[in-house]
Amino acid sequence: MSADPTPNELIRFDNVTKRFGDNTVLDNLCFSVRSGKHVTLIGPSGSGKTTILRLLMTLVKPDEGVIRVNGGQLFPAGEKEVREVRKNIGMVFQQFNLFPNMNVLRNVTEAPVRVLGMSKDEAAERAKGLLDLVGLSDKQDVKPTQLSGGQQQRVAIARALAMRPQVLLLDEVTSALDPELVAGVLDVLRDIARTTDITMLCVTHEMNFARDISDDVLMFDAGRVIESGSPEKIFNDPEHERTREFLGAVL
Ligand SMILES: Nc1ncnc2c1ncn2[C@@H]1O[C@H](COP(=O)(O)OP(=O)(O)OP(=O)(O)O)[C@@H](O)[C@H]1O
Question: pLDDT tens digits for 237-249?
Fold first, then answer.
């Protein structure tokens, strides 16, 4: 059963089930994210957090349920509707996946020109602003291999934002980085959270970051949200024994 979404809901999962073979990874999952909010998914390894982001990117399909984004339906839906709805969503992955043969500026302008049909000049203008936002305005002419992992990840953030998504999905974006590069990337994301109205849905093992940027934290276990609330509530006064155990192990 799926109720009508409330007006400012940007993402809504209604009774979403995802199985890989016999493994039920998401089990009748229901949750929603309101426009402009920063929501963090936490929980044990294998609890289905990344699968949620991959469903939103349409990299995998659910077995059952309804997924809505910005008033449109991502599942079930026809190809045309999926293409339209997907335009609202940008994602930054653990691995940066930049185009190795293109310089930094071109990495950021390529999709807006090709997919959105933006003029090259407008895309370049916007890309320069975004590279400034991620602290890389002096690197626009270099190739990704000449950058540190942290700098590459900041280019990947600029590239995702260049598509003007309403929601930015962040999947453990610092987990492939050397420890000394993590803070720079998280600072950029904190800035974006503070200075833009973009909606964020993050999977992270960086609990201090989750505490800093989140409006809401959703605690996952075995494919379900077992507890949700403000970071103060979840981190300082969790209700569920599994949440206490999890936080005890990671904090
Ligand atoms: N393409 C796939 N094929 C088969 N099983 C998969 C696939 N993708 C994910 N799984 C399984 O789904 C479960 C949930 O994986 P998922 O990556 O969503 O968990 P997670 O909570 O993000 O974990 P982690 O914190 O370790 O990244 C795991 O048991 C995983 O092995």
Answer: 999 999 999 999 9
| Domain around 126 | 100-163
Q: Atom 17 (ligand 1): residue with closest C-alpha?
A: 50
With a 6 Å cutoff on the Cβ, whether 47 touches ligand 1 is yes
* Overall number of domains in the chain: 1
Give the residue whose CA is nearest to atom 13 of ligand 1.
46
CA dihedral (216, 220, 225, 229) in degrees, to 10, reads -20
Q: How far is the CA of 196 from the centre of ligand 1 (A)?
A: 31
Q: Is residue 11 in a domain?
A: no
**Residue minimizing CA distance to atom 7 of ligand 1:** 20
Q: What is the pTM of this model?
A: 0.94
In a domain, 140, yes or no: yes
Domain assignment present for residue 21? The answer is no
For residue range 71-92, list pLDDT tens digits in order: 999 999 999 999 999 999 999 9
The Å distance, Cα 110 to ligand 1 centre, comes to 30
110 in any annotated domain: yes
Distance CA 217, CA 176 (A): 23
Task: Record the tokens describing residue 25, joined without a space.
Answer: 């990874």
Residue 63 identity: D
